[in-house]
Amino acid sequence: MKPGTKVAGVHVDLADLVAMRARARGFSFLPRQPIHSLLAGRHASKLRGRGLNFEEIRRYQPGDDIRQIDWKVTARTRQTHSRVYTEERERTTLLLVDQRISMFFGSQDRMKSVTAAEAAALAAWRVLEQQDEVGALVFDDADIVEVRPHRSQSAVMRILGAVAKKNQALRVNAGIRSNPGMFNEVLRRADRLAGHDVLLCIISDGTGHDDESERLLTRIARHNDVLFAFVFDPLESDLPDAGPLVFGDVGGQLEVNTAQKKLRERFRDEFEASRATGRDFLLRRETPVIPLNTIGDVAEQVRRRLGSGR
What we know:
alpha/beta, 9 helices
């Protein structure tokens, strides 16, 4: 296959990702599960500001800033009351889009790399629709393309262009060597770029996740919100009973007899254990994990997982 050649489900081009704009509806970055961190676009700040938008006076609640106690109302009612302020802030979203060779896998509808590309396009268009800033770190096994956050269609187009270019470069015969270390490298770059009060959306299969990844994510999550869109293919979690199969990548080939029940069970258990470990770590830090399957419509999956209705 020549570089840049498009095959449905195997590669995407810029036109495909631009067309996703019409489907970026019916969801927000506020998950249905009870997560304390605020994941909407424009949102009430975590910080209580002074001299900001006054919202109400209400009974004092544990955790309220004592500097916001309204002493006149407290004296009159003989019950402690607080003044509540909210601050309308713009939410910057930073997309981490994985286009490594480990993502160039799919058993039925599409490659993981295509699933990630479409999810990134949906997210970028949705953030722009919310009139918030969006940027990205698009990475493969060799380098990272950085698109600085901006609230403009041109910023979205730069993101989608970088995603499409790296997506089309993925080929089995391209001599690409898997680089699991790029996962931590892009987290380090995100840590430097994010700063505070950013929504970090990681769209990846998590290849290369290790203890260093957890330290980096912990540090990032101290001052930002993190959402992990975990991209996977059903064949990675459940081998079919299809007899001898040959699996291959640029490093070589391996023949496996999938008729062996114990082999299939061990394969499934190891995948589930690995996913559970990563998910438990993220949820302990109130990080939503959104599974995205390579089978089925990506936009429908996103709407089902992030539907605005609660």
